[in-house]
Design goal:
The protein is α/β, with parallel strands linked by helices and about 325 residues long. Helices cover about 45% and strands about 20% of the residues. A hairpin with a 5-residue loop joins strand 6 and strand 7. Helix 1 runs parallel beside helix 2.
Length: about 325
């Protein structure tokens, strides 16, 4: 009988973790499941709740916040399944989701990384795939051309705004909210890069799967609800700075210094355009003032971090 290991990393998200683990209890199939939860030093009672209400789960309690990659790697060390799922705690896994993914991978051993369709809490399909970042699609993103020409393959490249997420498709990047991989693939590709505290792991891991000759595939026949922000909403600007940091780490790792310099300049432009745009919104109309003001502060904090003036208060998420 095939076994599936499921790794979930939690940090101060008791209600989300409860819903996620409850949804996993309903998964049935011709396989056994081994669920591993790595708790990153939660202070809201998350590990105690899991230990009390889900005794079948293997719970690993970290004394410090290891971050996403290190936390998952700690779980991957304990995972012994033929297939392994990495699932965010703010995900409600629909019935038959894991079975559908398992059967799809069983039929095609060339697939190294598989991702399901993301359904938002409003019932709409969420974006869960990307193309690898390039100088061109980063510039299009900085100038908001991907928003202006939403359906364009040329201008909407990085975030794949031209893809409806309704067809099985081989993609560059699967976002890291829900992955399934095989033991064979992970033994070759390796664990997540634990130098990435938060974010960037989806870009890096997908890149490494491609480099090793594995296919990275989006499967719309399998679905799960992703609430999003289950952790990041507690400190939105520091988490946004962490995203910028991870993106620079990815560019440094997979590109030369010339492209890295170009990316730095493009990101400066990205934030300056947003500061100017949202300032104009505030000047013209007062509706949405709090959201526009927050985005101005977010971009300003990013520029301070990029130029070395500000720390971005990353300590708030560690």
């Amino acid at each position: 009988m095939k076994e599936i290991s499921i790794v979930i990393v939690t940090w101060n998200c008791r209600s989300f973790a409860d819903e996620c683990l409850s949804s996993l209890r309903s998964q049935v199939g011709e396989f056994s499941t081994h669920i591993i939860v790595v708790d990153n030093a939660s202070s809201d009672g998350t590990p105690e709740w899991i230990a009390s209400h889900f005794p079948e789960v293997e719970l690993i309690r970290s004394e410090t916040n290891l971050g996403f990659a290190k936390g998952n790697n700690l779980g991957l060390v304990r995972a012994k399944g033929d297939y392994i799922c990495l699932i965010n705690p703010d995900v409600n896994v629909a019935p038959e989701c894991i079975r559908t993914m398992f059967e799809f991978m069983e039929r095609d051993p060339s697939i190294g990384l598989l991702g399901p369709k993301m359904i938002g809490p409003d019932g709409n399909v969420g974006r869960s795939t990307m193309r690898f970042p390039t100088i061109w699609n980063s510039l299009c993103r900085a100038l908001a051309l991907d928003v202006i020409f939403k359906g364009s393959r040329v201008f909407g490249g990085f975030l794949m705004r031209d893809f409806d997420h309704e067809h099985i498709r081989e993609v560059d990047v699967l976002n890291g909210w829900f992955w399934m991989t095989s033991r064979t693939a992970i033994d070759q590709v390796g664990f997540l890069d634990d130098q990435l505290f938060m974010y960037g792991d989806d870009l890096d891991w997908s890149h490494r799967f491609h480099d090793a000759g594995w296919r990275v595939v989006f499967l719309p026949d399998a679905e799960a609800v992703h609430y999003g922000g289950g952790t990041t909403k507690k400190a939105p600007i520091p988490f946004y700075i962490a995203l910028q940091q991870a993106n620079f780490q990815y560019w440094k790792k997979h590109n030369g210094w010339l492209k890295l310099t170009a990316y730095f300049l493009i990101m400066c432009l990205h934030h300056l355009v947003r500061i100017a745009g949202y300032a104009a919104v505030l000047a013209v109309k007062r509706t949405g003032e709090s959201q526009a003001g927050y985005k101005i502060r977010r971009s300003f904090a990013s520029i301070l971090w990029m130029t070395g003036i500000g720390s971005g208060r990353l300590s708030e998420i560690r």
